[in-house]
Design brief:
By secondary structure, the protein is of the alpha+beta class. The protein has a domain of about 220 residues: Nucleoside Triphosphate Pyrophosphohydrolase (Alpha-Beta Complex). It is about 25% helix and about 25% strand. The protein contains nine helices and 14 strands. The strands form five sheets. Strands 10-7-12-11-14 form a five-stranded mixed β-sheet, sandwiched between helices. Strands 9-8-13 form a three-stranded antiparallel β-sheet. The termini are far apart. The N terminus is likely disordered. One of its GO terms (molecular function) is isopentenyl-diphosphate delta-isomerase activity.
């Protein structure tokens, strides 16, 4: 165990907020340094105005500050947090590269989604799917950043069919930052910038990520969906705004699997689930097009439906899915 260390010049509320951190493959213990004002400091050496401080990993504003010498990531969900006093608000905003008003505006975001927005590091790629870096989920979905810096990140979309060849759909939760309450395919998310999800061979990194998120969103344990059961069929590149602030710009891996599974949806991620056959899906599409019953579909799901799904569904029914795979082409769709 290692105790958090607080500089004696910090305000008492911070000094009293003592907690323990455990180092594991999912945590990072590091001492961050930042300038502070100490009116009682008589040392004129500016370098001595850098105080060592172990910050709370649950602070979303600092979870993006990474230690370059460590491969580990901050996982804030494991720890209790403390609130930064007003005197640190400006520094917190500056550290994020955001004006304080933007930080305040994000305060209304659902706590779980906010944590994931700052904690998760997406994989940045070019249009040929070469890894070029990484960035927080927050900035990868901020339309201002997408447009100004052309941020493109790797993603995946899982299409799970049962033994009756029905497709499992989910309705995204109301608290999702992008495309809340829309109907979409079984699971849609991102491989993260971590060793296990960067593996290129046999698309293992993306398949590892899909297995992780199916447990997180739908409660499907990994033993019920082994890695080899995910069949990559294709890749597509698309851009889609969600509202005036958020959107998607993804290079999306399309993964198909046929399994009978038990579901335990996570309400932070999923509002509803249902299996549909072809006719039921067509009726859902009709309602979405007509604006009936408030039905909306995610843009990436609609692109797959319009360009690939019915042909691939034929292969699902014939048991010839692997014959449909084309992982050499990256389809640019609008």
């Amino acid at each position: 165990m290692q105790r958090a260390r607080f500089h004696p010049s910090l305000p008492q509320p911070l000094m009293s907020a003592s907690f323990s951190l455990i180092r594991s493959p999912f945590t990072l213990i590091t001492s961050l340094r930042f300038p502070y004002n100490n009116n009682n400091n008589n040392n004129n050496n500016n370098n001595n105005n850098l105080a060592p401080l172990l910050l709370s990993p649950s602070s979303p504003s600092f979870s993006r500050l990474r230690c370059s010498s460590s491969p580990f990531f901050l996982r804030s969900s494991r720890y209790s947090s403390f609130s930064s006093p007003p005197r640190f608000a400006s520094f917190r905003a500056a550290a994020m590269g955001k004006p304080e008003a933007a930080v305040d505006a994000d305060a209304a975001m659902d706590a779980v989604q906010k944590r994931l927005m700052f904690e998760d590091e997406c994989i940045l790629v070019d249009e040929q799917d070469n890894v070029v870096g990484h960035e927080s989920k927050y900035y990868c979905h901020l339309m201002e950043k997408i447009e100004s810096e052309n941020l493109l990140h790797r993603a995946f979309s899982v299409f799970l069919f049962n033994s009756k060849h029905e497709l499992l759909l989910q309705q995204r939760s109301a608290t999702k930052v992008t495309f809340p309450l829309v109907w979409t395919n079984t699971c849609c998310s991102h491989p993260l910038y971590r060793e296990s999800e960067l593996i290129e061979e046999n698309y293992l990194g993306v398949r590892n990520a899909a297995q992780r998120k199916l447990l997180d969103e739908l409660g499907i344990p990994s033993e019920d969906l082994p890695i080899e059961q995910f069949i990559p069929l294709g890749r597509m590149l698309y851009k889609a705004p969600s509202d005036g602030k958020w959107g998607e710009h993804e290079l999306d891996y399309l993964l198909f699997t046929i399994r009978d599974v038990k579901l335990l949806p996570n309400p932070d991620e999923v509002a509803d689930v249902k299996y549909v056959n072809r006719d039921q899906l067509k009726e859902l599409l009709r309602k979405a097009d007509a604006g009936e019953d408030g039905v909306k579909l995610s843009p990436w799901f609609r692109l797959v439906v319009d360009n690939f799904l019915m042909n691939w569904w034929d292969h699902v029914e014939k048991g010839t899915l692997r014959e449909a795979a084309d992982m050499k082409t990256i389809y640019k769709l609008k």
